[in-house]
Design the sequence.
């Protein structure tokens, strides 16, 4: 190992990584004729089996698989955290913060729709060991003010307190974007405080990911939502590698899409997002994820002395879970093998 400080945790994640799906597993899943066949294969041939044992093969849908697999991911992160301390432990815990925020988002959407929040409990995925949110009391909140009051001793209260109501049409979008901004500010805070030499490749990869999110946000915000300069800037993310705030401001001020695309393509490393003009909108998100998949795969195999291998394993697990759920969706819509492969993050040449 490159660094004895991380030899134990690196050995742990290498063992976990060895159980992940192989290319042959992917090909077998894609060839299954229906959703029941996919689930049957996952239960009988993969390490996902114990997490899917309660899923009914005959009544399976995307969430029925996605939720237990995400719970598995949370358990893996909790195990990894026992090997870490200090800023490194804090950084890995940001993955659990993201799970908290996703659970909050589900409940806030339920509140906006007037749903019984307790009925949403099976959809929530978070770390009971590390969360600072009292989800049991949140589920019992009968109105928006009561909901916010449960969060009063958390940082989320500061984000939500300015919203006097929560409605589908007016409040959901800014609330969700504010929570996203909070998460990435927290991520940046830890990135700035990790050992910069030990974690150089990790930090570079994470900051590239922020660049890509900003490009997609600016592109979609202008093309599909006609957002103002102020709105685009308010929810742009800090901490990117190549694209600094000055560049974001210039792109936010552009009036027409052709000029915006020219500016975005000036960042050579990210031109792949826009190379195929006819399919930009359809595959932009998948191209971003595929770029990051290979970046984290490369990071996993690097012999660095930081926590790059740990973070890469978590991200590769997330990509794999997304691919599994995409394969399930492909069966529901009776997509061909070729069509299915186009929507997967993992690339088959």
Sequence:
């Amino acid at each position: 190992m490159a660094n004895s400080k991380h030899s134990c945790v690196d050995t742990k994640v290498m063992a976990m990584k060895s159980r992940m799906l192989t290319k042959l597993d992917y090909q077998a899943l894609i060839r299954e004729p229906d959703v029941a066949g996919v689930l049957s294969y996952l239960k009988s041939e993969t390490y996902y089996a114990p997490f899917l044992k309660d899923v009914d093969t005959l009544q399976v849908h995307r969430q029925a698989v996605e939720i237990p697999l995400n719970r598995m991911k949370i358990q893996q992160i909790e195990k990894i955290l026992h090997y870490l301390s200090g800023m490194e432990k804090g950084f890995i815990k940001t993955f659990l913060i993201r799970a908290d925020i996703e659970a909050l988002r589900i409940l806030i959407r339920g509140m906006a729709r007037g749903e019984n929040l307790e009925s949403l409990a099976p959809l929530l995925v978070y770390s009971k060991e590390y969360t600072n949110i009292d989800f049991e009391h949140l589920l019992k909140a009968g109105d928006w003010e009561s909901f916010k009051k449960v969060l009063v001793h958390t940082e989320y209260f500061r984000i939500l307190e300015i919203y006097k109501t929560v409605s589908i049409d007016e409040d959901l979008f800014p609330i969700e974007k504010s929570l996203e901004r909070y998460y990435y500010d927290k991520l940046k805070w830890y990135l700035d405080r990790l050992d910069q030499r030990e974690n150089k490749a990790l930090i570079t990869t994470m900051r590239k990911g922020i660049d890509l999110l900003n490009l997609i946000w600016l592109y979609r915000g202008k093309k599909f939502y006609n957002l103002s300069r102020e709105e685009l800037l308010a929810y742009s993310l800090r901490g990117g590698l190549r694209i600094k705030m000055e560049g974001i401001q210039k792109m936010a001020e552009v009036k027409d899409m052709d000029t915006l695309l020219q500016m975005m393509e000036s960042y050579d490393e990210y031109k792949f997002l826009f190379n195929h003009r006819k399919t930009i909108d359809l595959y932009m998100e998948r191209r971003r994820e595929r770029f990051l998949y290979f970046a984290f795969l490369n990071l996993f195999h690097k012999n660095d002395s930081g926590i790059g291998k740990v973070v890469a394993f978590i991200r590769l697990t997330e990509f794999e879970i997304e691919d599994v759920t995409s394969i399930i969706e492909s069966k529901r819509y009776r997509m061909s093998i070729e069509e299915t492969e186009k929507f997967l993050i993992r690339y088959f040449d």
The longest helix spans residues 86-113. The two ends are 32 Å apart (CA to CA). The chain has a mean pLDDT of 95.
